[in-house]
Amino acid sequence: MGDVQPWPPAGGRPDYPGRPQAGWPQVPQATGYAAMRAAHTDRDRTVDVLKAAYAEGRLNADEYSARFDLAHQAQTYGQLAQLVGDLPSGPMPGPMPGPAAPIGPPIPTTFLPAPVPAPSNNGMAVASLVLGLLCAPSLGVLGIPALVTGHLARQQIRRTREAGDGLATFGLVMGYLSVAGWSMVLLLSMVFAMGNG
Q1: DSSP at 90
Q2: Region of poorest pLDDT, from 96-100, 159-163, 164-168
Q3: Rounded distance, CA 101 to CA 193, Å?
Q4: Which of 119, 124, 118 is nearest to 156 (CA)?
Q5: 127: closest CA among 183, 158, 172, 179?
Q6: What are phi and psi of 186, to 5 degrees?
Q7: Which of 2, 150, 183, 186 could disulfide-pair with 171, CB 3.0 to 4.6 Å?
């Protein structure tokens, strides 16, 4: 990832007006997550946290101005984290995975990747499951619709990557069992009727 510039910039820690210099963490050469390069959107999120803190009275005008300027100069997550480390920005994440904890302040959730939502169940798969469960009480009438919706669901799931493959499979199994069972009943009824005729 290349050499990471020491932070704060040459000349020591930034002197924010109104804050004692001893209150700011002395961060050694950043490694791990803190050393990752920050993007423009990360800097914008940091500025949003600073704006909120200024509006709530947590920062005075000089502190806000100094941190605002440094946010646009920051190159890594660790540098951005120093600017908002003493400000509320959501719950703090747990320890970073790996053999060694990263050096530097913990990374606020502001800079963590957005959570990926779990895929939703395919609607046809749910329909196939419901129809499959209703096969026995309906005397097999819903077996064929369960098969049709189950096959359609599996095609859609392969194309859209939705969840619900297990639901569609269950609906298919129940549909096939229902159709096979009631076909056997009809066949035996016909054989019995022909035997008596």
Answers
A1: S
A2: 96-100
A3: 79
A4: 124
A5: 172
A6: -65, -45
A7: 150
Who wins on pLDDT, 69 or 195?
Answer: 69
Domain residue limits, the chain = 21-111, 123-196
In the chain, DSSP finds a helix count (H) and a strand count (E) of 6, 0
Distance (Å, rounded) from C-alpha 112 to C-alpha 77? 9
Greatest distance between any 2 Cα atoms in the chain: 107
* Residue 163, helix vs strand vs coil: strand
Closest CA to 171 of 189, 150, 196: 150
In this structure, what are the phi and psi dihedrals at residue 113, rounded to the nearest 5 degrees? Answer: -60, 150
Of 139, 137, 136, nearest to 173 by C-alpha is: 136
Residues paired with 76 in a beta bridge: 37
Average pLDDT over residues 155-180: 87
Both ends of the chain: CA-CA distance in Å? Answer: 87
* Structure token pair of residue 116: 């990926």
